[in-house]
């Protein structure tokens, strides 16, 4: 697995963050004026943005995380559903399955009624792949989770079409069969920041599994592939001792700039 470079991390982090506002000006970030397609959910809200430029090989699929009460409630749907309808031979979290399988309302003049969010995303991405593009998928929270499924389905239909997957604060997606059958672990980077509790979800050890290379941003360092139990242990210790850490002189020295010079 190649390493994820700093500029790549910053690029995908910025795109994930800017995907949440209703309006996204893709030309400010090097994409063509007509280089954006939006995929909406059942309420007409944007979930997926597909971005590209004619003169670049890479097209980027950016996927939002949970941004409504309904989406957050889906987190508790911790049973698993088959992905055979997506052309994949494993089971995933029922909440993520529901997000992918919901109806996608048209958001473009080329869009037609009757497609799911998964089907519309695959359709648009497939056209770009057939035009010679390779696909990078990036997503935050549940967006990262469903991005893995979309990527795996595209890779199944178009081998070597996926360039990389970069997720931020992603929960686990599926069971042991998902972990074994997922084709893109060697191209997947899973970014976890400090004590992000969502990355420990669902809280069912040995029932849900993560895939790809973990990059844990913790205490000013990057740790690679730290076992979940170790991260959880360090997180619990940090939560317990945090109130006492504010007593250290280093904290007082760090805050010296609050005072005016006399």
UniProtKB/TrEMBL annotation:
Protein origin, superkingdom: Bacteria
InterPro entries documented for this protein: AB_hydrolase_fold (IPR029058), Fungal_lipase-type (IPR002921), Sec_MonoDiacylglyc_Lipase (IPR051218)
Classification via SUPFAM superfamilies: alpha/beta-Hydrolases (SSF53474)
Stretches assigned to the Fungal lipase-type domain: 60-204
Gene Ontology biological process terms from the UniProt entry: lipid metabolic process
PANTHER family referenced in this protein's UniProt entry, alphabetically: ALPHA/BETA-HYDROLASES SUPERFAMILY PROTEIN, FUNGAL LIPASE-LIKE DOMAIN-CONTAINING PROTEIN
Protein name: Lipase-related protein
Organism this protein belongs to: Vibrio maritimus
């Amino acid at each position: 697995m190649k390493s994820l470079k700093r500029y790549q991390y910053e690029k995908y982090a910025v795109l994930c963050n800017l995907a949440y506002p209703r309006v996204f000006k893709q030309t400010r970030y090097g994409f063509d004026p007509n280089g954006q397609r939006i995929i909406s959910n059942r309420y007409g809200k944007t979930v997926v943005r597909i971005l590209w430029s004619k003169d670049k090989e890479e097209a980027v699929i950016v996927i939002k995380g949970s941004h409504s009460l309904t989406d957050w409630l889906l987190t508790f749907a911790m049973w698993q559903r088959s992905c055979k309808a997506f052309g994949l031979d494993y089971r995933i979290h029922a909440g993520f399955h529901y997000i992918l399988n919901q109806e996608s309302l048209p958001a473009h003049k080329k869009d037609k009624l009757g497609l799911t969010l998964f089907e519309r995303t695959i359709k648009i991405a497939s056209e770009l792949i057939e035009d010679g593009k390779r696909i990078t998928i990036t997503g935050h929270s549940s967006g990262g989770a469903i991005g893995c499924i979309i990527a795996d389905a595209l890779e199944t239909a178009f081998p070597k079409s996926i360039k990389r997957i970069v997720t931020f604060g992603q929960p686990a997606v599926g069971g042991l069969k998902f972990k074994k059958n997922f084709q893109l672990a060697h191209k997947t980077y899973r970014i976890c920041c400090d004590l992000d509790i969502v990355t420990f979800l669902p809280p069912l050890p040995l029932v849900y599994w993560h895939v790809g290379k973990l990059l844990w941003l913790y205490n000013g360092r990057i740790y690679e592939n730290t076992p979940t139990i170790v991260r959880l242990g360090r997180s619990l210790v940090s939560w317990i001792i945090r109130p006492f850490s504010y007593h250290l002189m280093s904290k007082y020295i760090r805050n010296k700039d609050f005072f005016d010079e006399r």
